[in-house]
Amino acid sequence: MADYLTFLPEKAPKRNLLVQIFFEILYIVRYTLLYLPGLLLRPSDITEGEKRPVVLVSGLWGSPLTWSSARAALAKQGHPVYVVRLGFQCGNLRKYSKKLQEFLETHALNDCYLVCHSMGGLVAAHMGYKGRDRVRKIFTLGTPFRGHYLAILVPFTYATLQMIPFSRFIKETKEKYRTLTSIQAVFASFDEILFSDYLNIPGRFDDVKLKQIGHCNLFMGPSGIECIQELILAEEAKDPKPVPVKKGADSNTEKKIPDPTFKKKAPKKKAYKKPAPKKKPKAVKKAVKKAVKKAVKKAVKKAVKKAVKKTVKKTVKKKPLPKKSRR
After folding, report:
1. Distance between CA atoms of 111 and 134, rounded to whole angstroms?
2. Residue 1 in 3-state DSSP?
3. What is the pLDDT of residues 84-118, one digit of tens each?
4. Could you tell me if 192 and 215 are in contact, meaning their C-beta atoms sit under 8 angstroms apart?
C-alpha cells in the first residue's frame, strides 16, 4: 500500500482520546436525529464568493442539515457552498449519481470541488462525463472504496447491497477510481464504521490521515472541518481563480491620497444666457405668411372700397340740381 500524508489540526481544540469518543457519540446522535428533518429541509445555497464553488454530498442516511458547520466555515473562506439532497440516502447509487450530475448542470456549476462523506464518494465516482467535466477535484471523507463487509449482514436497502465488497458496483468503482486523477481521500486514525484502513484508502500518495478518531468527526468536528479547509486552500493556491475586474475600473491605477493642504477652487458661476427662440417648422411658417397676406389684401380692398364710396358721396352733395325752366 502506498504512503499517505498526516494532518495535525492547529486551530481546532486539542482533545484527548476520551473527549474524542464523547464528541463522536454526540455527532452520531445528531446525525441520526437530523435524518427525518433533512428529508424536507435543505440549507439555502450560498452563491456569493470570489473562489471556486464547493458542493457537499452526504453519505448513507445522511442529512443536508449535518453540514451546517462545514458550510459556514467554507463560506467564510470565500467559497460559494451548495448542499445536495439526493433523497432518502439509501436507494440506488447510480440514480443518485445522475441526480448529482443534474444538480451541477441546473446550478451551472463549473470547475467546482466535491466534498463527499462516506457513501457520497461512491456517488461522485459514478457520475457521467458531463458531470465529471464540471468538477475540479473530489475530496472523500471515510469513503468505502472497496465496499463494506457489514453490508452483507444488513442487506435491507439498495445502497447496502451495492456496497457489498464483491458486488458489480464496487468492481466498477475500483476501475473508475483508477482512471480518476483529481481525487483525494481523507480518513480517520480509527473509523468505527469502516474498521479497516484497507476499505477506506484508495492507495494514493496524497491520501490524508486525520490524527483523530471518528467517522462523523471527519465532517462535523472542528478538526475534520479544518482539514477540509486546508486541502481546498492548498488546491486553490496551485491555480487561483482570476478575480473579475469591474467595468470602468483600472486595476493598475493606484488610489490617490488626498492632500490636506490643497484647497479646492470655488466653481465659477455660469453666465445666464437667454434661450434661443425656437424655430417654427416650414409648414407653419408658410401658413402664417399666407394668412397674413390674405388679411392685408382684404384690409386694403376694404379700405379702398370705403374711400371710393366716401369721395363719390361728397361730389354728389356739392353739385346743385338743375332748375326747371319757366314757360
Report:
1. 5
2. coil
3. 999 898 999 999 999 999 999 999 999 999 999 99
4. yes
Q: What is the pTM of this model?
A: 0.73
Alpha helices, DSSP H, located in 139-277: 150-153, 158-162, 168-179, 197-200, 217-220, 222-238
- CB 142, CB 196: distance < 8 Å: no
Give the CA count within 13 Å in the CB-facing half-sphere of 308. Answer: 6
Beta bridge partners of 135: 112
The pLDDT score that the predictor gives to residue 101 is 95
Kindly state the greatest CA–CA separation across the chain: 173
Residue 251 has pLDDT above 50, yes or no: no
Q: Which residues 6+ apart lie within 8 Å of 232 measured at CB? A: 54, 74, 77, 79, 113, 115, 139
Beta-sheet pairing, 5-7 with 208-213: parallel
pLDDT digits (tens, 9 = 90+) for 31-59: 999 999 999 999 999 999 999 999 999 99
By DSSP bridging, strand 183-190 and strand 54-57 are: unpaired
CA 285 to chain CA centroid, nearest Å: 62
C-alpha cell at 321: 340740381
User: Degrees (nearest 5) of the Cα angle 173, 176, 179?
Assistant: 150
Cell triple for residue 214?
A: 471518528
Per-residue pLDDT, averaged over 261-283, amounts to 61
Burial letters 22-32, b for 16+ CB under 10 A, else e: ebbeebbeebe
Q: How far is CA 112 from CA 51, 72, 144, in A?
A: 9, 17, 23
Ordered by where they begin, the domains of the chain are 5-238 (3.40.50.1820)
Bridge partners of residue 185, in order along the sequence: 140
Q: Whats the size of the chain, residue-wise?
A: 327
Task: Determine whether 78 is exposed, middle or buried from the number of CB atoms within 10 Å of its CB (0-12, 13-18, 19+).
Answer: middle
C-alpha distance across the termini of the chain, in Å: 173
What residues form DSSP beta bridges with 56?
83, 115
